[in-house]
């Protein structure tokens, strides 16, 4: 069954059902992948989002090789991928020789990076977020490269506006976000040098039931924990929609590479989201702090023009999340830290 707004489930029963939903392609994704030739390789596949993106790619293009590359410190991720027909390759992306030995495929999705714990070893953060992209951009100069980035490369913008557009120059707080600018500049430099087609995928807060902004807010409301609204406005997108848009970007690469903002098209108030969960749980959220006039927000008009609106809308995400959290279903235990304002992760 293909993914569409008309056949979304009312509730997501368990992790297996969640994975199946995240890996269900839409007709639009299948059509766009048909516009590009060649196999697909995902570098840094073992993170939060990589496995389901790889599974989605294989489901949308079952006749192609889909290869997932990572260190696979958790072997269960490799097993999960192989069970869905995704080939796996163990590789430390800090090893230049290992990168050069990888299969030369036509389509690269680059997802490797370091965020949480970034402040603990800043040299490693810069190596992963800036040095590794330079190695990859050179090794795959004849491929299409969709490189995951972040909306955190932008400065804070007024919450009463539309968010940052792709034309706004990066100027973020904190070394983590600065290193992400470094990542983009490396792909940009080598794209210009080798005429490598690509896209810089500036993603703001992909969420599924096990983690994300909504999971964080819902969990705090249910547990009666305080919710800091100083960074009081966010935008976010269902992980399945974000994964589909990343893969669809392979059909919309620019030479040289160019940025595209990906998130939900709405700017949402944390206070309002907390209130909606409070209504569902029958308890008032504990709100602390006051909303600052600025936040990390992106304008996704360019993505909406290319891909249309996300399949899963905000109300559906709130409903799924409230149900999931209320049933004490699994969590990855990884807070998004969306409320951080100084860029220190």
User: How would you spell out the order of helices and strands?
Assistant: HHEHEHEHEHEEHEEHEEEHEEHEEHH
Strand-residue fraction? 15-25%
Query: Can you summarize the main beta sheet?
Result: 7 strands, parallel
Measured as a percent range, the helix fraction is: 25-40%
Task: Spell out the key features of this protein.
single chain, about 350 residues, alpha/beta, seven-stranded parallel sheet, two-stranded antiparallel ribbon, 12 helices, 15 strands, about 40% helix, about 15% strand
How do you describe this structure in short?
38% of the residues lie in helices and 15% in strands.
How would you describe this protein?
The chain has a seven-stranded parallel β-sheet with strand order 3-2-1-4-5-7-12, sandwiched between helices. The protein has a two-stranded antiparallel sheet with strand order 6-15. It has a two-stranded parallel sheet with strand order 8-11. Helices cover 38% and strands 15% of the residues. The protein is of the alpha/beta class and 345 residues long. It contains twelve helices and 15 strands. The chain is globular, with a radius of gyration of 19 Å. Helix 4 (75-83) links the parallel strand 2 (66-70) and strand 3 (87-90). The mean pLDDT is 94. Helix 2 (27-33) packs parallel to helix 9 (239-248) and helix 8 (213-223) crosses helix 12 (314-326).
């Amino acid at each position: 069954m293909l993914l569409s707004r008309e056949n979304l489930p009312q509730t997501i029963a368990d992790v297996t059902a969640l994975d199946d939903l995240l890996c269900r392609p839409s007709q639009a994704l299948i059509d766009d992948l048909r516009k590009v030739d060649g196999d697909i390789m995902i570098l840094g596949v073992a993170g939060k989002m990589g496995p389901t993106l790889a599974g989605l790619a294989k489901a949308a293009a079952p006749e192609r090789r889909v290869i997932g590359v990572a260190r696979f410190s958790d072997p269960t991720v490799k097993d999960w991928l192989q069970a869905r027909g995704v080939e796996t390759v163990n590789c430390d992306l800090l090893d230049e020789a290992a990168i050069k030995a990888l299969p030369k495929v036509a389509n690269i999705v680059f997802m490797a990076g370091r965020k949480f714990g970034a402040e603990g070893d800043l040299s490693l953060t810069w190596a992963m977020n800036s040095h590794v992209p330079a190695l990859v951009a050179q090794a795959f100069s004849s491929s299409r490269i969709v490189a995951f980035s972040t909306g955190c490369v932008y400065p804070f913008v007024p919450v009463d506006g539309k968010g940052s557009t792709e034309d706004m120059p990066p100027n973020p707080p904190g070394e983590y976000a600065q290193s992400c600018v470094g990542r983009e500049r490396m792909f940009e430099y080598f794209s210009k040098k080798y005429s490598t087609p690509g896209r810089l995928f500036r993603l703001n807060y992909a969420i599924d039931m096990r983690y994300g902004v909504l999971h964080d807010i819902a969990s705090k409301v249910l547990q009666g924990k305080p919710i800091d609204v100083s960074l009081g406005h966010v935008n976010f997108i269902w992980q399945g929609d974000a994964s589909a848009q990343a893969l669809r970007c392979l059909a919309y690469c620019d030479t040289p590479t160019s940025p595209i903002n990906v998130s939900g098209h709405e700017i949402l108030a944390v206070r309002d989201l907390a209130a909606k969960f409070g209504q569902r749980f029958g308890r008032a959220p504990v709100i602390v702090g006051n909303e600052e006039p600025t936040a990390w927000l992106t304008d996704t008009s360019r993505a909406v023009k290319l891909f249309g609106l996300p399949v899963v809308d905000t109300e559906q995400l709130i409903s799924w999340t409230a149900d999931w959290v209320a049933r004490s279903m699994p969590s990855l235990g990884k807070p998004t830290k969306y409320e951080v304002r100084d860029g220190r992760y």
